[in-house]
Amino acid sequence: MRTYQLPLDLVRERSPERPVALVRPRSVSVAARWFQDNLKADVFYAVKANPSRWVIETLVDAGVTAFDVASVAEIELVRSVSADARLAFMHPVKSRAAITKAYFEHGVRTFALDSHDELAKIIDATGNAPDLNLVVRMAVSADGAAYTLSGKFGVSPDAAPALLLATRQAVRDGLMGVSFHVGSQCMRPTAYQAAMAQVGRAISRAGVIVDIVDVGGGFPSVYPGMVPPDMSEYADAIHRGFNEMPVSETTELWCEPGRALVAESSSVLARVDLRKGDALYLNDGSYGSLFDATHSRWPFPTKLVRPDSEKGGAASAELKPFRFYGPTCDSIDHMPGPFWLPADVREGDFIEIGMLGAYGVAMSTGFNGYGEHEVAMVEDAPMASLYGLAPRSIPTVRTTAEEQARKVVRLSRPKGKAGQRKKARR
User: Fold this and answer.
1) How far apart are CA 70 and CA 91, in angstroms?
2) pTM for this predicted structure
């Protein structure tokens, strides 16, 4: 992997034909250290967020030894980097073949479930193994999250006690636990504490002792218009919630950060192949690394990278909003933005799209013959950071209309009888 000080250095050296994932391993190391130092929990990296080999290697070097995996392919990836890593197969629905291979060929002992049928499947596929760690996935409220993940997985509060009891009875020499997911990009730290209270009530109703409380993922990152509270507030809320749960002193606390560990670590360098007014046609799109920019309409931060900027080609100081189209023939391959860039952006310019370390290149497909990326390491800072590597927020450009609206002074109506008298006089 080649290393450049800045993305501009790469563009000046050569004009890449394919999109380039610009990676910053130090960002991953710093984020991993924060979780290990501030959250009193075993950290399991959620591999699905970014399954790049360099990410796994960086995390192992940073001291992360446990991984949340959801497929045999993810298991094999982690094992190829770290033969003795702790693996937890936390997908609540797995094939029998996947369970058998994970247990007998890769030494996986921890499996998640959210139904009696999955519990029976795990026991059968492992030959009624005595050393299973079984974790019940609970459905909880996802208020405060950008993505609600409670609809597909998780046993309901009404059905939870019976499943918790059955799982407790199935565990012999291993551990029995509970897990949940408050939703991806959770912007409300107290959501964890509320979820832990909900899970605690189910544990009490079931009358079981649990050995593991896994608070899942959902830890956020910074995007335009989304600046999370300080990460310490998430740790404090989880610690408070754990202390209030009906568990023993030996119960283990686990977490599964994904986005929060890797979002800052990568950006994507895409080329402008055509401009039509405010529409820019790029060589990357929704079938590549810009899935969230299409389907969630997230306006990721952008920077213009112009290779001839020192030869009279300096970009305009005026910024304008643009929308993107990807390289495929599908009209859905559209990223509405707005993405603010210099007004004179043109064909041949490159655009760095930031904060794509999570669910960026990981979402790429080969549709229409596109989707392949190069990878290069850069030494500059990410566009934003929750860990002190860059500003905590991403500046947003306001239109004239928005600025005027902000200047309007709105007087609140008096409450109670005074408000009623004022209304009667109108």
Assistant:
1) 5
2) 0.89
